[in-house]
Amino acid sequence: MKKNFIFNDVQKLKGVGIQLSKFLKKKKIEKIKDILLNLPYSETDRSKLYKLNELEVGKIQTVKVLVKKLNFPRMRNLPNKIIGEDDTGKIDIVYFNSREGYLRKLFPINEYVIISGKINYFNNKYQITNPDYVTTLDNQKFVLKNIPKYNLTKGINEKKYRKISEQVVYNIPNVEDWLNNDFIKQNNLLNWNESIKKLHTTNDAKDNKSKSFRRLVFDELCANFLTLSKNRKKIKKEKLSKNFSKIFSTNIEKKLPFILTNSQQKVLEEINKDLLSNHRMFRIVQGDVGSGKTIVSLLAISNIIESGYQCALMAPTEILSKQHYELTKKIFKNTNFKIDFLTGKTEIKDRKKILKNIETGKTNFLIGTHALFQKKIHFKKLGLVVIDEQHKFGVKQRSELAKKGGNDCDVLLMSATPIPRTMMMSLYGDMDISKITEKPSKRKNIITLSKPEKKINQLWPFIQKQLINQSQVFWVCPLINESLFLDYSSAKKKFDLVRKKFPNKVGLIHGALDKNKRDEILKKFLNKDLSILVSTTVIEVGIDFPNATLIIIENANKFGLAQLHQLRGRVGRGKKQGTCILLFKEGLSKNAIKRIKILKESDDGFFIAEEDLKLRGFGDLIGYQQSGLKNFQFADPIIHEELFKLAEKYVLNNQIYINDKKYSFLLNLFDKAEIINTE
Fold first, then answer.
1. CA nearest neighbour of 582 among 570, 599, 594, 569
2. Most confidently modeled of 55-59, 290-294, 638-642, 674-678?
3. pLDDT digits (tens, 9 = 90+) for 22-78
4. Are 678 and 192 in contact (CB under 8 A)?
5. pTM for this predicted structure
6. Alpha carbon distance 203, 395 (integer Å)
7. Are strands 410-415 and 282-287 parallel, antiparallel or unpaired?
8. Which H helix or E strand runs over 615?
9. Is-contact 292 268, C-beta < 8 A?
10. What pLDDT score does 43 carry?
11. Which phi and psi angles does 558 have, rounded to 5°?
């Protein structure tokens, strides 16, 4: 059988028609290989033959009995009954709605059969109703084994799916392994064919440290690193070097009201080195909330402008891009740089003027939203693209992004989501990575307190004090069951309570509001027209609220550490002391107590992310909404940390030719080939 067999549509399988394939596709099982990668979550042990006097009620067990009598009542609604026995007793095998002819064929009188099913007890006798398996002694090997159990969706019969799965597993083509035998033995793995079969026919799928499961994890990671490696080669092509003397950046830096941290200086040097090189820069700057990533990017931008190129900075929202624009005007105040601001809401008259300035090269620096990359926008000489909040982009999107500016355009990405190194390399291995780990020296640490919700009345005087000092307050309510209605009702209830205490000073934003309305309320808060903002977790990450000094987070125990840290970072961005109050219900779990303790004792986002990873797993740390990040089906950065390192080393140290057929199989297996083949 050809190995391409596993990349065929599921409808190519015996027993899979149009209707069943529709249900399978709801489960994201579209190709035969998806059946191989849909591992059993458990198994039913039918391997042992029990005597009738050994049976236990409520358990699934397998027996060998002699068929003694068939009873087919002529009255409606009464079940058909087969009486079987062994040398220790008798048992009733009961069927509802089964044809007489079918049962006579299945249970020949005075012959032995193997029966497996759930044991019941009725009328002083053991009973199996509608057994799962009935077979002859010749075929007992198909029953006397561990039967895998799969997570299935509505419309898929478990027994039917198991037959399909077995059909695939027992017909896996003999695939040439991409790993040599020595490597497999040295690293406690199995060959590919053996590992896949074991995962479906033994308990190995339940053990994420078993040899077969580890092999699947390694393959998944290997496919990932290969993809990133190929993407890097596509992106980091030759370009013309940017020539600059750092005159502007040095003068700007001297006039800053603060001194750059050592970490900022180091990252700026890394960026400048890339800009001066003859290979395109594709770098991500990762920094904790308030670490000063934007300042570093602006200094790099001034060097680009000095070299005669244009720059573009894109942010995901109008509010955030507007903040970047206002900050840039302050920083570049004493230069003759022409800075323009463009969003989807820019007036037509202003838009035409800006587009002309961009095309003629009059605009040195363009700031805005996704509107920056519309087809109508033509730069005269674009030399650098800066993308804020880069976690919105996956591998494929990053590849497309690199094409936007042409061959001589460098790309700089910024992310405020602290991610541990293990995850960082596996997510962003196609980029060079810079970390800003220090915070500005004058930045005050946020005071973090915890308080039981029953003491909520103690908060009102503290809030009042903030308002007297002309400061602003966030009150964050948790998202409930991912329901917009419940999300709204939770926040609305709190809004009504807070508004009673502080009339005419409170705003409300939640997931049910459209984006324009949300932006409008956020603008009011930024402009100090509102003093208190009751919100769900939709408050924008990355936006500076310099006048906000207090954030109250309800049901803090419901959030992960990383998310709490991000929310906490909404305050204390100005000169005033910031405070975060974590409200919790009584009866916290040990895990929740530990999370709150870690947050109170540390404001290091990278340390917190590491701890969150250990406590909650990477899916919760990164979040499902950050598209493109949760791309591992089997690998876990905590459990399989050594495999992350091993796969990275394997791809980097071996001269792997991505077009080698054996690697194309691996890439297709994990749906990476499409990304790699996109030119």
1. 599
2. 55-59
3. 999 888 899 999 999 999 998 888 889 999 999 999 999 999 999 999 999 888 788
4. no
5. 0.76
6. 34
7. parallel
8. helix 605-616
9. no
10. 85
11. -85, -15
Q: CB count, 10 Å around CB of 432?
A: 17
Strand, coil or helix: 338? coil
Phi, psi of 304 (to 5 degrees): -65, -45
CA 580 to centroid of chain Cα atoms: 27
Nearest Cα to Cα of residue 148 among 30, 226, 38: 38
* Cα(170)–Cα(192) distance, integer angstroms: 14
Per-residue pLDDT band at 594 (split at 50, 70, 90): confident
Interatomic CA distance for residues 430 and 85, integer angstroms: 67
Residue type, 485: F
- Give CA–CA dist 579/577, Å, rounded: 7
Q: Which of 45, 46, 50, 29 is nearest to 160 (CA)?
A: 29
Are 284 and 423 in contact, with CB atoms under 8 Å apart? no
Amino acid (1-letter code) at residue 27: K
CA atoms of 1 and 119, how far apart (whole Å): 41
In sequence order, what DSSP letters do the residues of 248-308 get, joined into one string? HHHHHHHTSSSPPPHHHHHHHHHHHHHHHSSB--EEEEEE-TTS-HHHHHHHHHHHHHHTT
Domains of the chain by start residue, with CATH: 48-144 (2.40.50.140), 175-237+640-679 (no CATH), 247-436 (3.40.50.300), 447-602 (3.40.50.300)
User: Hey, CA dihedral for 326, 328, 329, 330, is it positive or negative?
Assistant: positive
In angstroms, the first-to-last Cα distance of the chain is 32
Closest alpha carbon to 228 in 282, 150, 288, 153: 282
Q: DSSP assignment of 8-30, as one string?
A: SBGGGSTT--HHHHHHHHHTT--
Given a contact cutoff of 8 angstroms between Cβ atoms, the answer to whether 384 and 367 are in contact is: no
Residue 441 burial (CB count, 10 A)? 9
What value, to the nearest 5°, has the Cα angle with vertex 23 and ends 19 and 25?
110
Query: In this predicted structure, what is the pLDDT of residue 262?
Result: 94
User: Tell me: the pLDDT tens digits for 600-617?
Assistant: 988 888 888 888 877 766
H runs (alpha helix) in 383-532: 395-403, 421-428, 459-468, 484-501, 515-526
How far is it, in rounded angstroms, from Cα 62 to Cα 560?
46
Residues 155-166 pLDDT 10s = 888 888 988 998
Q: Are 301 and 386 in contact (CB under 8 A)?
A: yes
Mean predicted confidence (pLDDT) in 642-654: 87
Check: CB of residue 506 under 8 Å from CB of residue 531. Answer: yes
Give 513 or 447, the one with higher predicted confidence: 447
Do the Cβ atoms of 438 and 262 come closer than 8 Å? yes
